């Protein structure tokens, strides 16, 4: 959390991860070039650059799309999620280099605008074997550009989290376009079974991770607690909640996180105001509920971010009866203080 907008938000952890990203990208490019020179020495420099940065961007995109579901399945991946934006911008830069060199190599020798040439040099949209796959890559690059250029918290704040999130969900459209771009390109130019196989394998892995994570989430949404005569919902035994952690339940079609800390219990709405992160998957740090995605914090008893921050989430009343926790399913106004119950 920060009061002022900065072009790049770095701390020691982000610097470490950024160094890993840069090192990984350089090592991949070096390895790609060496292997190309060994197994395909007649490849010209422009083609090598196009293929090296293109394949790098595709691999990085698969890693980016895997981070989300992996973080939901295993909290150990959360530090990577925290640094995913920088990885996304780095991936866009690799895709941009690939696209620029491809346009220069294939579309600057004629007497028409290179961008216009991308869309008009091949109009055979009805053919699988000659489909203009470069158009698909160009459209994907545009989506990645808008995502990279709006990745800063300034745009998140001014566009609103809902609009910003919707814009960045376009990554799945970009992913589909890139898969078709790579598949058709490999099919038309080289008929590369290896490239097609890698793309198919990547798609299977990403799809499987998202389905498994969605199944895990469906268990939370499928929670059906018993109501007592006063309408309070029975949720769980207090011993089921670890210290300084939470358990998530669906209450009145909304996810609620019940935290245990310092011998007390408090309940808040599970969705972080920053990017919709799952607060219940975070933990208590310095007396504050800390979002596992980007570190936004809220006081457990009133759902308010500590001053001078202004974010607020809804709170819920709890009751303890023979170690069994009951929750009032009617949430209170965001930022409403609720006396924690002792446990």
Briefly characterize the structure.
With 343 residues, the chain is α+β, with helices and mostly antiparallel strands.
Q: Helical content, roughly?
A: 40-55%
Number of distinct helices: 10
Number of strands: 11
Domains (count): 2
Mean pLDDT: 89
What fraction of the residues are assigned to beta strands by DSSP?
5-15%
CATH class membership of the largest domain: Mainly Alpha
- Computed Rg: 25 Å
Major sheet: 5 strands, antiparallel
Structural class designation: alpha+beta
Order of helices and strands: HHHHHHHHHHEEEEEEEEEEE
User: How does CATH name the architecture of the largest domain?
Assistant: Up-down Bundle
Low-confidence stretches: none
Morphology: elongated
Please report the distance between the alpha carbons of the first and last residues: 31 Å
Q: CATH topology of the largest domain, anyone?
A: Four Helix Bundle (Hemerythrin (Met), subunit A)
Transmembrane segments: 20-39, 45-67, 87-108, 128-148, 169-187, 193-215
GO molecular function, one term: 2 iron, 2 sulfur cluster binding
Subcellular location: Membrane
Cofactor: [2Fe-2S] cluster
């Amino acid at each position: 959390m920060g009061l002022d907008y900065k072009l790049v938000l770095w701390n020691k952890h982000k610097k470490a991860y950024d160094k890993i990203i840069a090192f990984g990208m350089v090592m991949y490019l070096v390895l790609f070039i060496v292997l190309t020179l060994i197994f395909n020495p007649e490849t010209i420099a422009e083609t090598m650059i196009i293929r090296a940065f293109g394949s790098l961007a595709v691999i990085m995109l698969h890693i980016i799309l895997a981070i989300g579901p992996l973080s939901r399945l295993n909290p150990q991946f959360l530090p990577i999620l925290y640094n995913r934006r920088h990885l996304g911008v780095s991936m866009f830069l690799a895709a941009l280099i690939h696209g620029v060199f491809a346009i220069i190599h294939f579309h600057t020798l004629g007497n028409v605008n290179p961008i216009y040439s991308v869309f008009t040099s091949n109009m055979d949209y009805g053919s699988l074997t000659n489909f203009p796959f470069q158009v698909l890559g160009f459209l994907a690059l545009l989506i990645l550009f808008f995502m990279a250029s709006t990745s800063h918290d300034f745009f998140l704040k001014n566009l609103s989290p809902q609009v910003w999130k919707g814009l960045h969900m376009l990554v799945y459209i970009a992913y589909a376009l890139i898969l078709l771009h790579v598949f058709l390109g490999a099919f038309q130019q080289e008929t590369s079974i290896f490239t097609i196989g890698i793309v198919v394998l990547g798609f299977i892995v990403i799809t499987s991770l998202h389905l498994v994570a969605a199944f895990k989430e469906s268990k939370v949404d499928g929670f059906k607690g018993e109501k007592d005569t006063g309408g309070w919902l029975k949720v769980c035994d207090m011993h089921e909640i670890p210290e300084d952690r939470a358990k998530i339940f669906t209450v009145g079609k909304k996810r609620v996180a019940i935290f245990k800390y310092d011998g007390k219990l408090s309940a808040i709405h599970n969705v972080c105001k920053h990017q919709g992160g799952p607060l219940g998957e975070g933990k208590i740090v310095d007396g504050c509920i800390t979002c596992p995605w980007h570190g936004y914090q809220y006081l457990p008893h009133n759902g308010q971010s500590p001053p001078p921050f202004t974010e607020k989430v809804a709170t819920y009343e709890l009751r303890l009866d023979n170690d069994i926790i009951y929750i009032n399913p009617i949430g209170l106004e965001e930022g409403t203080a609720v006396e924690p119950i002792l446990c």
